[in-house]
Design a protein that fits this description.
The longest helix has 18 residues. The strands form three sheets. A four-stranded antiparallel sheet has the order 2-3-4-5, with no helix packed on it. It has a four-stranded parallel sheet with strand order 9-8-10-11, with helices on both faces. The protein has a three-stranded mixed sheet with strand order 1-7-6, with no helix packed on it. The protein contains seven helices and eleven strands. The protein is of the alpha/beta class.
Length: 267
């Protein structure tokens, strides 16, 4: 006869039960042993594959109490049915199905105008909501140093600013250099207007036309392309042709990603 052996481990020494969480696609977890944090992109044969925000992949065993979810210990388990497939947002990052928007951070990203804000929302909107980052537009940057001072950036409230036509020797570059806070980052792209950051092939034109100095650039573009001189309607046409990051020039993509990383960096 098998004898009963009582468990004499004191209650305070017994490991507390932890939740079991299905390794659904897009779930972001951390492997505490290595510190690797990423989204689930595959789960099979007792392992899970994670992808971090830089596209690096790591495979880990599905062990009890093996991961952290929002700082809490969990046990990842294989989903009940069906293979795990990854989805992508318009920015190219791993989609998180059913994810709720995070409470807005104190930090912000400022852009010059409404068109800039709409383009950023079009491509990075899903990512920004998950990260809790709000994008606001300034209607120009002439008063940028005063705007930054009024915002009062700090370690827990970083400020990122995206500037049009930020090239050496321009008015924009002099304004950007006047912002000196270590908790504010001013970056820019070389294009006269954010319209140019959309690839011509995506809009269905051979190239963005050159507009003579002294002429309103957007109006000049409409004239050169034979479009009605309604810049609002022209922008809506351009924006409608942007479906993902692949429709944007690298010079804009890199700067927006840097600003998101800066604003969301740990204190």
């Amino acid at each position: 006869m098998r004898q009963y052996s009582p468990d004499l481990t004191p209650p305070w020494k017994k490991p507390k039960p932890v939740p079991e969480v299905p390794a659904d696609p897009g779930l972001v977890v951390e492997e505490p042993g290595t510190g690797f944090c990423g989204a689930v992109i595959g789960c099979e044969a007792g392992t899970v594959t994670l992808e971090d925000r830089f596209g690096k992949h790591r495979v880990f065993p599905l062990e009890p109490r093996g991961f952290l979810l929002e700082g809490r210990v969990i046990t990842l388990v294989r989903p009940a049915a069906g293979p795990v497939r990854s989805g992508r947002t318009a920015s190219g990052s791993v989609a998180v199905p059913g994810a709720r928007a995070r409470v807005a951070r104190a930090g912000r990203i400022y852009v010059e105008g409404r068109h800039d804000a709409e383009l950023v929302e079009r491509v990075w909107g899903d990512d920004l909501r998950i990260e809790g980052v709000v994008v606001e537009y300034l209607e120009g940057i002439d008063d940028l140093p005063a705007v930054v001072d009024e915002f009062g950036p700090g370690p827990d409230a970083r400020l990122g600013v995206l500037v049009d036509h930020l090239v050496p020797g321009t008015k924009e570059s002099r304004i950007a250099e006047a912002v000196t806070s270590e908790h504010a980052l001013v970056l820019g792209h070389p294009y006269i207007d954010v319209w140019e950051a959309v690839k011509p092939s995506s809009v269905g034109i051979p190239a963005w036309p050159r507009v003579p100095r002294g002429q309103d650039w957007k109006t000049g573009v409409c004239r050169a392309l034979g479009w009605p001189e309604n810049t609002g309607a022209a922008w809506q046409h351009i924006l409608s042709r942007v479906r993902s990051y692949k429709d944007l020039e690298p010079e804009l993509l890199g700067r927006v990603e840097e600003l998101i990383d800066f604003v969301t960096a740990p204190e």
